[in-house]
Fold:
Amino acid sequence: DVQLVETGGDSVQAGESLRLSCAVSGLPFDQYAVGWFRQAPGKEREGVLCIDTSAGTTYYADSVKGRFSISRDNAKNAVHLQMNTLEPEDTAVYYCAAEWDGCSATYWNYWGRGTQVTVSS
Structure:
């Protein structure tokens, strides 16, 4: 079975940093793009960042440019989302997803269950 497990969510103060991780199993990890998405209370889910099989990065959300970065470790089947200078508007459940079709995919087949990030002002 394919599994994606997010870890690293926490409650922090504005300006602090967090590093989320997504552990992937059950698929050929180095052949899949991995994206991070988030859903804030009362809002639709939105894309944040994606990393493709060549470690190229795609930003889906302009609001995180300059603050968030993404990396992948193919040896450990993991993707990390480094979030710096967090803002209250970053509060959301963060999900990772995997897709063979790359960061331009319009449908993502595999999802984790999410990890909560709460940023207080």
About this structure: The first strand starts at residue 3 and ends at 7.
